[in-house]
Every structure is written in C-alpha cells, then in structure tokens.
Design brief:
Blueprint (H helix, E strand, L loop, with lengths): L1 H6 L7 H14 L4 H18 L11 H39 L2 H39 L8 H8 L2 H25 L5 H44 L6
Helix pairs in contact: 2-3, 2-8, 3-4, 3-5, 3-8, 4-5, 5-6, 5-8, 6-8, 7-8
C-alpha cells in the first residue's frame, strides 16, 4: 500500500495542474467556499481509491465537488457532535460545582467532570478511527446515510486491513505535512501539503475497500462451503 499511496497523486497526466489547484484551494480556504471544493475532491479520492483506481482524479465538475464537500462536512460535524457531548457535559459539571460553593460540591462535580473528560478522550479516539470508514462508505455509496451504516462500518473497522490503512494514512499525512508545512509560508510547500492529504485519503479508501472485500470474500467462501456440504448430505441416486 505504501508505494501505491505515494505514487497515486502523481499517476495522472495533469498531476502538476492538480497539485497546483489543490494547493491554491488550501490557500483560498480562508474564504470558506474553496474549502468545500477541496473537501469534495477528497471525497472523489476516497471513491477512486476504494474502487481500485490507480490514477488520482482531476478537478472537473466543480459544482459536484462543492456539493460533495458540503455533504462531507455534514458527516464530519455529525461525528464531531458525538465527541462534543461529553466535553460539554464535563464543562457544565465544572460550572455547577463552582456554583455550589462548597468543597464537597466542587469535589463531587470535579470527579464527574474528570470521568466525562476521560470518556470524551476515549470517544474521540474511537470516532477518529471510525470516521475514515464513514467518509469512504459515503463516498462510494453517494448517500449521507451510508456514513452512519452501523453494519458496514462495523465490518470494516474490525478488520486488520482497515487498521493498517488508517495507520498508513495518519502516519504518512503527519510525515509529509511536517516536511511540507515549513515551506507553506512561501507557498512552495502548499502543493506538497495537498499531496499529503491525497496520500492519506488514498490509504483510508484502500484500507476500507480491502477490509470490506476480504469480508465479502469470506462470506462468499462460507456460502460455497455450505453449498458443498449441503450437496454432500443429499442422498445419491444410483441408476
């Protein structure tokens, strides 16, 4: 996966233009709307990677990219709310503890707040792990509901292949981003930052696809074995 991921953004005839446009969208993201187009392109990367395509997509059908970017934001916000709930509850608990004014009340609410913050940390890790699968399932299906398909997400996230894809995506994204970021101030490194994002999302998409493909092959193999066993149990007629 490593070699395929690193080469993926460059295996296209318009790779230079794609990297420049992607970098420009990152810079223009402060105006919000270009950020949606960039997110839409990353949706296209997830879909392309999950479908086993070797070449990175091009920046075409910008309206579609914008709409897909908006949908991806909805998915990300929905999963972000899951993280926010225990954090907000912890802050409310601290506030109530301060209002009581008593040492016992402060200690009690402080303990509750600590437990809620611990819960928030664990939930954050879980959400960060599941989110790439949710985004990829949405990208492949083209429907928002696919991002919350519990059965499909469970099937993928419990696979070691998906875990490898996520780890590759996170590590490569951090490494490439760390190398490129210092040069981003003079704009030279911005296309490289975009390159790192594409590499990460490729790993997410491939990890999800390999996990679900393996599960499908396992199910198919189980069905075939069951069919053979069924046939072997049938009485044979000798003519």
């Amino acid at each position: 996966m490593l070699e395929d991921a690193l080469g993926y953004p460059l295996r296209t005839d318009d790779r230079v233009a794609t990297l420049i446009i992607g970098g420009a969208l990152i810079v223009a993201g402060v105006f919000v709307l270009p950020a949606f187009v960039l997110q839409g392109y990353l949706v296209r990367v997830l879909r392309s990677a999950a479908n086993g395509e070797r070449e990175a997509p091009s920046f075409t059908d910008w309206g579609e990219l914008f709409v897909d970017g908006l949908k991806l934001l909805v998915v990300q916000v929905a999963y972000g709310v899951v993280i926010a709930v225990p954090i907000v509850a912890a802050l409310v608990s601290l506030l109530l503890g301060g209002i009581t004014g008593s040492d016992a009340g402060i200690a009690a609410f402080g303990t509750v707040s600590l437990l809620l913050l611990l819960t928030a940390t664990l939930v954050s890790i879980l959400v960060a792990y599941v989110l790439p699968a949710a985004m990829t399932n949405f990208a492949v299906a083209g429907e928002l509901g696919a991002a919350f398909d519990v059965e499909a997400l469970r099937e993928a996230t419990l696979s070691g292949r998906y875990l490898v894809g996520v780890l590759f995506g996170v590590v490569l994204g951090i490494v490439i981003g760390s190398v490129a970021s210092p040069f981003a101030l003079i704009l030279i490194g911005v296309p490289a930052v975009f390159y790192g994002q594409v590499v990460s999302y490729y790993c997410f998409g491939r990890g999800f696809a390999e996990a679900t493909d393996a599960a499908s092959e396992g199910d198919a193999g189980g069905d075939a074995d069951a069919a053979v066993e069924f046939e072997s149990d049938q009485p044979r007629t000798v003519r």
